[in-house]
Amino acid sequence: MTAAGDAGAGAAAPNEPHSMPVHLRPAKPADIPALVPLLVRLKRLNEEFDPLLRVRDDAESQAREVLKASIADPKAVVLAAEGVGADKDKVVGLVLAVIRERPFYAPSVEGVILEIYLHPMYRRRGVGEFLLKETTAALKAKGAAVVIAEFPAQNEIASRFYAKRGFRPIIVRQARSL
Ligand SMILES: CC(C)(COP(=O)(O)OP(=O)(O)OC[C@H]1O[C@@H](n2cnc3c(N)ncnc32)[C@H](O)[C@@H]1OP(=O)(O)O)[C@@H](O)C(=O)NCCC(=O)NCCS
Questions:
Q1: Residue from 46, 114, 135, 157 to probe ligand 1 pocket by mutation (most atoms less than 8 Å from CB)
Q2: What are the sequence ranges of the domains in the chain?
Q3: What is the DSSP track for the chain?
Q4: pTM for the complete prediction?
Q5: Tens-binned pLDDT, residue by residue, of the chain (178 aa)
Q6: Which of 68, 142, 148, 176 is the most exposed place for a label (fewest CB within 10 A)?
Q7: 38 alpha carbon to ligand 1 midpoint, in Å?
Q8: Domain over 22-163 is classified CATH 3.40.630.30
Q9: Centre of ligand 1 from the C-alpha of residue 91, in Å
Q10: Listed residue (126, 124, 138) closest to 80, CA to CA
């Protein structure tokens, strides 16, 4: 599956303000086949933004392994967003976040959102904000007192999405090819 259409998302019509077109729940091992393509699409989108993020040929099997380990990890939050109505039981989004210790800084526990992806048809209707709110609550319940979003610096969708919600750069990672 390619990431075609990802960068130009926003075609969906606005939804009623208080109805959410997704049902969000913790992911189960049985969701892995549906989650893998979403995670790989996210990586392919990042590849479009930055040549240093070239997707490996074995990305699908890596995605399977990462999801399997994360779903089993009590220090991770993996959520699956299902559609509603005609899309009921269809997984249209995913979130993967982890709890990390901060040995030198207070507060000492942070929740890090590593992956957040929504099918293009579901974007720009406030679903991302709902995912962020629910993920933040789940991380807080696991002890996090600060929430961090990790995403490629060139991913403009993510930059805008998080900036709009009060996130700002805290740690910068820079790279060059060797
Ligand atoms: C990030 C994501 C989950 C947000 O979901 P969403 O439902 O679109 O988010 P919301 O409707 O709550 O918020 C929309 C805001 O997100 C940002 N955004 C969403 N799509 C965008 C796009 N194509 N270009 C620029 N900004 C975009 C904007 O700030 C937008 O606000 P605006 O509509 O007022 O401009 C979703 O856009 C997505 O899956 N993107 C692709 C994957 C990705 O980049 N993930 C983050 C890196 S890990």
A1: 157
A2: 22-163
A3: ---TTSTT---SPPPPTT--SEEEEE--GGGHHHHHHHHHHHHHHHHHH-GGGPPPTTHHHHHHHHHHHHHH-TTEEEEEEEE-GGGBT-EEEEEEEEEEE-SSSSSSEEEEEEEEEE-GGG-SSSHHHHHHHHHHHHHHHTT-SEEEE---TT-HHHHHHHHHTT----S-------
A4: 0.92
A5: 333 456 544 433 343 345 789 999 999 999 999 999 999 999 999 999 999 999 999 999 999 999 999 999 999 999 999 999 888 989 999 999 999 999 999 999 999 999 999 999 999 999 999 999 999 999 999 999 999 999 999 999 999 999 999 999 999 999 999 9
A6: 176
A7: 15
A8: yes
A9: 18
A10: 138
